[in-house]
Design brief:
It contains eleven helices and twelve strands. It is of the alpha/beta class and 355 residues long. The chain folds into two domains: 195 residues, 3-Layer(aba) Sandwich (Isopropylmalate Dehydrogenase), CATH 3.40.718; 141 residues, Isopropylmalate Dehydrogenase (3-Layer(aba) Sandwich). The strands form two sheets. A ten-stranded mixed beta sheet has the order 2-1-3-12-11-4-5-10-8-9, with helices on both faces. The chain has a two-stranded antiparallel ribbon with strand order 6-7. Helix 1 packs parallel to helix 11 and helix 5 packs across helix 6. The two termini are 26 Å apart. It binds 3-isopropylmalic acid and manganese (II) ion (MN). 3-isopropylmalic acid binds next to helix 4.
Length: 355
């Protein structure tokens, strides 16, 4: 018998639920076509629930979520809630407690007309950032001294363990091998200033590299990485980096691939439950207007399908997105696509059915 997948959905805040709705429409269509059996369970975590009940994420939910095959997330972040509360209490907590130690962010430009860079004929953008997702500056280690006075001191420490770095780097090498493009892995760090943290990253990287003689390795400081991403993005195949640098360079990555409307990511625990999301955030000003681009959320469905072993369905979703992007949309930006959010979802569904 076919397996019945269990998928948890968390629409979250702002435009998150609208995006998730379109993603689920596409999941339904592709599942029908490829005979994938699944059920979804919806959770209402987010700003509204917090403001209504004071509850952020109950402990019981974490255990429940561990029983799913994957989680599909819209967006977390509410204008009426102090920054950090929902992000730390929901998104980061899920990443940490479910040990989703990889944040995988493909940066692919499907059509040059959406790129803000003036790319040459032989330039392309097709790389992946493997961001460490459970350590570094995101651990929350630190605090205040003499808070509220002019003598105040604030400290926030970057925590990096040998094991945490090693499993991330190992994943990056395996990924580079598996995607089989340029077979090149670049470590992005700051060895000239963060001499402790990135000394460890570099040593672990060099050690693991010995097991992958077929993979070319490279190193770039994070500032230089930003420069090359703009000047020569075709140089990159896979980039591995720490949590904070990964956060920053993947927003730059989203922009050069056409914007937040198309950028998706996966929070991956290769041995456990992974969570997929459009990376654009909750975009409160567009909420409920049916104008945001759902393709990022739809690309997140493609990544989810890949992770649960439905590669064919994943490819079908991606190639349908590529077709719509190339042939239909006027822009990838909210309100400028030439179609509404739900119409774009319908276009992808139609493409999947017709193919
Ligand atoms: C992201 C987001 C999050 C992060 C925020 C919302 C906590 O920017 O997924 O990149 O910094 O990781
Ligand atoms: Mn970010």
């Amino acid at each position: 018998m076919f397996k019945k997948y269990k998928i948890a959905t968390i629409g979250g805040d702002g435009t998150g639920p609208e995006a998730v709705k379109e993603g689920l429409k596409v999941l339904a269509a592709v599942s029908d076509k490829y005979k994938i059996d699944y059920e979804t369970v919806d959770y209402d975590f987010g700003g509204k629930r917090f403001l209504d009940t004071g509850e952020i994420l109950p402990d019981s939910a974490i255990d429940e979520l561990k029983s799913f095959d994957a989680i599909y997330l819209g967006a977390i972040g509410h204008p009426d809630v102090e920054p950090g509360i929902l992000e730390k209490g929901i998104l980061l907590r899920l990443r940490f407690e479910l040990d989703q130690y990889i944040n995988l962010r493909p940066v692919v430009l499907y059509d040059k007309k959406y790129c803000p860079l003036n790319l040459g004929q032989d330039q392309k953008i097709n790389f992946t950032v493997v961001r460490e997702n459970t350590e570094g500056l995101y651990c929350g280690a630190g605090g205040f001294l003499r808070k509220g006075s002019v003598d105040e001191v604030a400290i926030q420490e970057s925590i990096n363990s040998y094991k945490g770095i090693e499993r991330c780097i190992r994943y990056a090498f395996e990924y580079t091998k598996k995607v089989n493009r340029e077979k090149k892995l670049t470590l992005c760090g700051k060895t000239n200033v963060l001499t402790y943290v990135f000394s460890l990253w570099q040593r672990v990287f060099n050690k693991v590299a010995k097991e992958y003689p077929e993979i070319k390795t490279d190193y770039a400081h994070v500032d230089a990485t930003c420069m090359w991403m703009v000047k020569n993005p075709e140089w990159f195949d896979v980039i591995v980096t720490d949590n904070m640098f990964g956060d920053i360079i993947t927003d730059l990555g989203a922009m050069i691939q056409g914007g937040m409307g198309i950028a998706a990511g996966g929070n991956i625990n290769p041995q456990g439950v992974s969570m997929f999301e459009p990376i654009g955030g909750s975009a409160p000003k567009y909420t409920g207007k049916n104008v945001i681009n759902p393709l990022a959320a739809i690309c997140a469905i493609s990544m989810l399908l890949n992770q649960i072993g439905q590669e064919q369905a994943a490819k079908a979703v991606e190639s349908s997105v590529v077709k719509i992007v190339k042939e239909k949309l006027k822009s990838l930006g909210a309100g400028r696509m030439g179609y509404s959010t739900s119409e774009v979802g319908d276009l992808v569904v139609k493409e999947i059915i017709d193919k």
